[in-house]
Design a protein that fits this description.
The chain is mainly β. The protein is built from one helix and ten strands; from the N terminus they run βββαβββββββ. The chain has one domain: Metal Binding Protein, Guanine Nucleotide Exchange Factor, Chain A. The strands form two sheets. The chain has a seven-stranded mixed β-sheet with strand order 6-7-8-9-4-3-10. A three-stranded antiparallel β-sheet has the order 1-2-5, with no helix packed on it.
């Protein structure tokens, strides 16, 4: 869905404006998202070219695996981005967007890795890995 949204971390050291097509939200239950967010990660994504950085002075990138990196604020600690190598898409933590987003949660992924202290009770599609679509 095409839209324009603004997003920022808690301290506003990282602030962006997005334009273009935003993917609806995926709830990711993989071990990396659990360790990064303290629970699952909820991400939308856009093309790299559709992000304008209004402020990025506290943005730091962490190579979280051989295939991906994560962007976070080095001041307030907010987890903001997830990016696979060699792609032109970037995932943005949906909680960073200012309201209203008009985004919808569309699925749960990596459900086999979820923690045992919560249940997935929604009726959204569930996947053990990242779906191809």
């Amino acid at each position: 869905m095409k839209k324009s949204l603004t997003a920022s971390c808690l301290c506003k050291g990282v602030k962006i404006k997005t334009n273009g097509r935003h993917r609806n939200v995926s709830n990711c239950h993989c071990i990396q998202c659990r360790k990064t967010h303290g629970i699952y990660g909820a991400y939308s994504n856009v093309k790299d070219k559709d992000i304008k950085y209004l402020n990025k002075k506290t943005l730091t990138w962490f190579k979280s695996s051989k295939n991906a990196k994560r962007g976070f604020c080095n001041k307030c600690g907010a987890s903001i981005f997830f990016k696979f190598k060699n792609t032109d898409n970037i995932s943005i933590a949906a909680g960073m967007f200012d309201k209203p987003t008009k985004l919808k949660t569309m699925r749960n992924i990596f459900i086999g890795s979820k923690s045992d202290f919560y249940k997935i009770t929604d009726r959204l599609p569930k996947f053990n890995k990242y779906p191809k679509n």
